[in-house]
Input
Amino acid sequence: VFKIKAVQLAGKLLPAFNTPTGIPWAMVNLKSGVGRNWGWASAGSSILAEFGTLHMEFVHLSYLTGDPVYYNKVMHIRKLLQKMDRPNGLYPNYLNPRTGRWGQHHTSVGGLGDSFYEYLLKAWLMSDKTDTEARKMYDDAIEAIEKHLIRRSNGGLTFIGEWKNGHLERKMGHLTCFAGGMFALGADGSRDDKAGHYLQLGAEIAHTCHESYDRTTLKLGPEAFKFDGGVEAVAVRQNEKYYILRPEVIETYWYMWRFTHDPKYRQWGWEATQAIDKYCRVSGGFSGVKDVYSSSPTYDDVQQSFFLAETLKYLYLLFSNDDLLPLDNWVFNTEAHPLPVLHLANTTLSGNPAYR
Output
């Protein structure tokens, strides 16, 4: 029944790919099949994290059904991206599906970009490490990220900035905090035997993100935090002081726990658990809060779907044994839904008659 539903839904989504380039629209009307992009996205562009975060699901659906159409759609996206020039080796967040050209050169490992990089690594892992093209794209991307976006603050905190209008903005988003876990997950198999380096980088990002929590009144992290002058790991603007039950920091704690078993990650996870329970629990569930620096916070009255899918799941896994969903057998998509590693010979999906 679930396979049938998945195929029905995928069929409704496929018209989104009917663009001159094959880069899909951000939205598609499920009745008419007409696609469009967000009005605010640079010059009618599609968004890197959106069209780059289909790979795992579509490849798995082709595996389940034997129908290569889904696999071909996402592989076409990858081939197109490989051919394009990348400023500083980085992928801008906006790409126009009509012209095939980048929109404004804004690059981020946080919102608008984040899960594209995550899926390059996870495509390789999901293929039982046979999809070497995905691994190469990942390695190239994180080398460019480390060179151009990762900096150390005056206070010694490692952070990932955003490239905007030709300069580096010394600001990190809560969403970017997932990257600590990504670096740890990708350490094994990294280029030039740099596994130790990437595990250390993951630990440094985890530490910085923990500081963003620890420096608030509620011990919950803000949406974005700056590294300017004397201000470090603290939100400056009022509209960045909210916490909406986001999982990324806890996700990184969990990966760091799995790879190091350093008890501090469970300690940090427990701090966050207590803060969420104390400040976000309401009669009907859990709510985001509008200001993590206020001792009497107001609720936003929304329980986001990722709170159940990710935040609570990663906390549960953080305090569970490693044999619950072992990383050798399972890869988590960007909403923490586990997909199995497909132990197939040679190339992606070669065990499937559709690809012989």
Remarks:
- The CA atoms of residues 1 and 300 lie 36 Å apart.
- The chain has eleven helices and 15 strands.
- Residues 195-214 form the longest helix (20 residues).
- Confidence is low (pLDDT under 50) at residues 350-356.
